[in-house]
Amino acid sequence: MKKVNVKFRSVRIKLFLTLSIITILIIALLIVMNSIVLESFYTLSKINTVKQEFQVINNLYNKNDPSVLIQVRRDALANNFDIMIENENYIVEFSTNENFTNAINQNNDITAHFNIQDEEQQRTIFTRDNYIIRKVESNGLNCILLTGRLDNGYRVYKYQFLQ
Q1: Domains in the chain, number
Q2: DSSP one-letter code for 10
Q3: What pTM was computed for the model?
């Protein structure tokens, strides 16, 4: 019987092992970067999108644009978020999702519009005079919820998943 000796001295084996280890290290580095660094980037970009959309809606209502609801629906579909607008009498003027409307109406934490309690401050991401952005959890997924008041007195609830 012949004895089989594996030779790790050949250039082909050394090159293969070196390239394999480098490839594995690059993939591991990309996974770590994605989970640590890019998560905060995604969150920040979603927060900026939420802020910009609130300003767009407020400007459309200030201009008394008759196509405001069509434009809001188009933006909601394009950016994958749910939005609800209710008038000063708490009557829903517009909603992109009936389930979202029911969840808002049943959630006392959200309907206590701008009364921020101590435990809520931990979830508050950004606060302005006329809106608050909070990080909330829905069905185990992290989401951003903007609760705001337009210049005309209407209330806006914008809900967007972080994933």
Answers
A1: 1
A2: S
A3: 0.67
